[in-house]
Amino acid sequence: MKEKAVSQDLKIFRVEDAVEGQRLDRYLATAYPNLTRSQIKKLIEAGNVLVNASVAKPALKLKKSDYIELRIPSQEIPSTFPQDIPIEVIYQDTNFIVVNKPAGLTMYPAPGHASYTLVNALLHKFPDLEKFGNTLRPGIVHRLDKDTSGLVIIARNEGARRELIDLFKTRSVVKGYIVLVKGKLEPENGAIEAPIGRKPTDRKKMAVTSCGKPARTDYKVIRYINQYSLIEAKIHTGRTHQIRVHFASIGYPVVGDSIYGVKTAVLKRQFLHAYFLKFRSSLDGKLYTFRCDLPSDLKTALQKLAE
C-alpha cells in the first residue's frame, strides 16, 4: 500500500498487486488494525471510502492499481493508553495472562469510550502487550460483555495469540458460567440448542431465529432460591449474548438483565459470572484449569433473594 496523507483524516493510496481480488472491507481491516470491522463497515456505508472516485460497497473486489480514498473522522480512531484500574490477576506466564474481569468494565476502547476498559488496565500492569498484535485490542482473543464478570485469557505473544484463537475457534476451551434465572427451571439438567442471530425487528439485539448460527448451552441447576434458579451453564459455541438469549427463549430470563431478562432491586447488572476455564495448550502440552468465585455483588444478591 502506497499511502499519501492529504490531510489528517484523508488517506489516498493505490492497491498493491498482492491484494488484488480481496474484499474492500477485509483489505482495510488489515491496513488499519486500529479500526474494527464494524467501524470500517460504517465508514464505507457512510460514503467515507471511495474506490477510483466512486462510492464503494464493503464486498467490492479490488483490482490492480485501484485507488482508494479513505476519510477517517478523528473520533472514529480510538487510542489505547495505560490506566491504573484494579483488576485481579489469576495467573500469568510468558505466554498468557488470566484475569478476573469486574462487571462494568468494557473489554477494549471504542469511539466515544476511549478509557476505563480492560485493555487500559492491562497496559498499565503489562506494558509489553503494546509490542504485538492489534494496538486497539492487544492480546485479546475472546470477550465478555461489559456487565458480565469473570475469567478472561489474554495472549502475551503472537504465538500464544494464534494458538488461543484456534482453541476458541475449534471449541477446545471449556467455558463455565454461574447464572441466576427467574423461575424454577426444570428439568434440573439439560441443554438448549437453538440458533442465534440478529433480531429481525431490532438489529441491536440478538434472538433465537431460524436464520441464526447454531448454538448450544448445557446447564444444571445448582439450587433453587425461592422462585429463582441458580445454574451452572457451559457453552459449546460463543454467540453474542448466548446465555442470556437462550434462557430468555425458554421462559427463564436472567436476573438483572435489562435487555432480555428481568430487572431486580437487589442487583444493578445481569447475574452472569464466567467462573471456569479449561484448555490444553499445545505450546507446552499442559492442561490449564482456572476458577474464580462469585463477586460480592452477586453473593449479596443471592442473600437478599433468599430472605
Describe the protein in words.
This protein has 307 residues and is α+β, with helices and mostly antiparallel strands. The protein has three domains: 2-76, Structural Genomics Hypothetical 15.5 Kd Protein In mrcA-pckA Intergenic Region, Chain A, CATH 3.10.290; 78-170, Pseudouridine synthase, CATH 3.30.2350; 171-307, Pseudouridine synthase (2-Layer Sandwich). It contains six helices and 16 strands. Strands 6, 7, 8, 9, 10, 13, 14, 15 and 16 form a nine-stranded mixed β-sheet that branches. A five-stranded antiparallel β-sheet has the order 1-2-5-3-4. Strands 11-12 form a two-stranded antiparallel ribbon. The chain starts with a strand and ends with a helix.
Average pLDDT for all residues: 89
List low-confidence stretches. 1-8
Find the structural class using helix and strand composition: alpha+beta
CATH topology of the largest domain: Pseudouridine synthase
Estimate the global geometry from the Cα principal axes: globular
Q: In the CATH hierarchy, what is the class of the largest domain?
A: Alpha Beta
- Number-wise, the strands total 16
Percent of residues in beta strands: 25-35%
Order of helices and strands: EEHHEEEEEHEHEEEEEEHEEH
According to CATH, the homologous superfamily of the largest domain is Pseudouridine synthase
Sheet of most strands: 9 strands, mixed
Please, how many helices? 6
